[in-house]
Each structure stands twice: as C-alpha cells, then as structure tokens.
Design brief:
Elements: H1 7-17, E1 27-31, H2 32-39, H3 49-67, E2 70-79, E3 82-92, H4 96-107, H5 113-118, H6 160-173, H7 179-193, H8 200-212
Antiparallel strand pairs: 1-3, 2-3
Helix pairs in contact: 1-3, 6-8
Length: 213
C-alpha cells in the first residue's frame, strides 16, 4: 500500500480511505484516546503526548502526505495545559506536480527516502524522472492518466506551512477563529472571483490578517 514503511502510516492512511467518499467533510476532531486507538498505539506505549507526537503521529503525517494522494495535518487541541483532542484536516492533492512527485518517489529506491521525506537532501517536490537510475524499468508516467486542467484555471491549494503561518497570525491576535473555516472562505472567494495569486500561501495569510484587524 504505497510502500508505507510504518504501521502508524498505514493506520493513518486507512483512516483517510474510510472517509474518501465523504465529499464535503475534510476534517475531524478526535479525542487523544481515539487518535491513539486509530494509530494502533497501546495504552502502555508512548504515554506522553510529546513522545506519541514525535514517534508516531508526526512521522505518519509526513509519510502519508509524501507518498499518497492525500495531504494531511494534525492540530493538537488543549484543555488547560494538557492535549485532549487532535483535529485532523486533509485533502486530496490537486497540484499536478505534487501528484507526479509522489508517484515518481514510489518508483525510486527506498535508499535515501527518509532523508528525502524530511527534506535533508532534496526538496519535497523537486523529484524528476531524470533522477532515477538508468537501469530502472520503464513505467507509465502518472501525467498520462491525469485529467487535463481547463486552460487558464487550476484549483488553489494552501500548503500546510501556509496554514501554520495563518494559525500564528490568529494566535497573536488573541481571537478565537477557525483557520480551516477561513481557508475554505478564502478558497471559495478565489474560485468565485477567479483570483489566482502567484503566492497562494502569502495571499491566504494576508486574507487572515485582514480578518483579525
């Protein structure tokens, strides 16, 4: 299954697959106990949230977003000082380059994948077929099977880092706003008006800044 190397990644991917037909649902908030159960982490393992986050949750989020058709983030929610819930947000990759990169990564050797995943060697989406060994067997390129986008139109995509920047703007403002609701509002406005910024993340952060003024 996409050559996912971790049982936690497999569990997270199965969680997404069970929700793939929920067309209008792109996030879900679970208790920490439910999150641990979904990830297959026993009660006596990775007991603190920090340990669970570092050893299971974060690596699974990275690998699923890197190797599959989904991009997924997780936001810890605190009650007082303790993390009690986790909000998962996901979407299918709409960027053609990101989809091609994921497929080409699966065609590559697993050697060096961990470094590529963490960005220590290569940029996440700077993966081209020319980087593969000349001895690699020929494969059909994903671009041959993907629907062509309407000329002059493409769906905007706010990256996980863009969402994190927007969260920081909201946090600093002291307001209680849902960054994911703002993201949907931003994307709906862009689609309706034909707004197509060169820097989507920057435009979204600017949109959020105007909301918190």
């Amino acid at each position: 299954m996409f050559e996912l190397s971790s049982k936690y990644s497999l569990a997270l991917y199965e969680f997404l697959q069970k929700r793939k037909n929920l067309q209008f649902i792109s996030y879900e908030t679970l208790t920490l106990e439910e999150t641990r159960a979904i990830m297959g982490v026993g009660k006596n393992k990775l007991k603190s949230f920090g340990h669970f986050n570092d050893k299971a949750l974060k690596p699974a989020l990275k690998e699923v977003s890197f190797l599959t058709e989904y991009e997924i983030t997780a936001e810890p929610i605190r009650t007082g000082r303790a993390v009690t819930h986790v909000k998962f947000s996901w979407q299918k990759k709409t960027d053609v380059g990101a989809q091609i990169a994921a497929v080409e990564e699966l065609e590559r050797s697993k050697i060096g994948r961990k470094a590529r995943l963490t960005g220590e060697i290569e940029d996440l989406f700077a993966i081209t077929s020319s980087q593969k060994s000349d001895s690699s067997p020929p494969t059909a390129h994903i671009s041959n099977f993907m629907p062509q986008l309407e000329e002059g139109r493409s769906r905007l995509l706010v990256s996980p880092s863009g969402v994190e920047r927007a969260k920081e703007v909201i946090r600093q403002s002291g307001q209680q706003l849902d960054v994911y609701a703002l993201e949907q509002e931003f994307l709906a406005h862009a689609e309706k008006t034909g707004f197509a910024p060169g820097n989507v993340d920057g435009a979204f952060v600017g949109f959020v800044k105007r909301k918190v003024v």
